[in-house]
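EI: anyone free to look at a 251-residue chain?
SC: sure, send it
EI:
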Amino acid sequence: MQKFVRHFVIPLAKNRGWKKLCEIGALTGQSTDEILKLPNISHTIIDPCFDADLALKYAADARVMVQKGNSLNVLPRLTDTYDCLIIDGDHNWYTVINELDQIRQRALLRPGGVIFFHDVEWPYARRDMYYQPETIPHEYRQEYERRGIIRGRSELADTGGTNSEYCNAVREGGPRNGVLQAIEDFIAKHPSDYRFCRVKLQRGLGILQYRQKRLSDDIRFLSIQFKAWLYSLYRLRHHCYPGFLFPPKKY
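SC: here you go
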């Protein structure tokens, strides 16, 4: 997600003058560190802080507020309206669609604002993963096992595979399964209010805009769609991460 923040979130934030951002799922704060290079912003982090003590890490930065906890418990407590939200937390249908419902119901995203999602491509576009399966109601929780995932195969691997340490849904596809499925189901409930596109590389970036329903706003989103298409096209043609799009980081 760090590269997507650097090449999509940061340029849009500068171009549109975003001042209030919210990040759901920060892990050790690598993407956060990129965001904090922006001047004159406030940044809210929602994370259970299993991987790092983020409150301690950013204690000296008055721009940062860390809300420790799971997103579905924290979002009802927020009162700000954000220009941008970044969602890279629990990668399952129940969590993502309820995050989106709460963001909408509580007006946490301003009209014209954008939500970015990681993992909208394989392996979690159409397959749930649970960090804490006990927090997902039984009726919304797919059957899962701690086994790896193989591209092009619905069933989990007998041995090896991707992300074998996580609780992965035993089958890919079907209702209420995966991050992209949750986004699509949310948009289907509000088809005239949102525009969506995705970047099909590095496990995928989803970009959801809350429409202002103005022609100028729709035209501006076309530039985002074109950039997403360009990144995706290069990846599909060259089967590698494009160096001119993701240049080496300078230290």
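EI: The domain at 2-125+174-238 is CATH 3.40.50.150 (Rossmann fold).
SC: 👍
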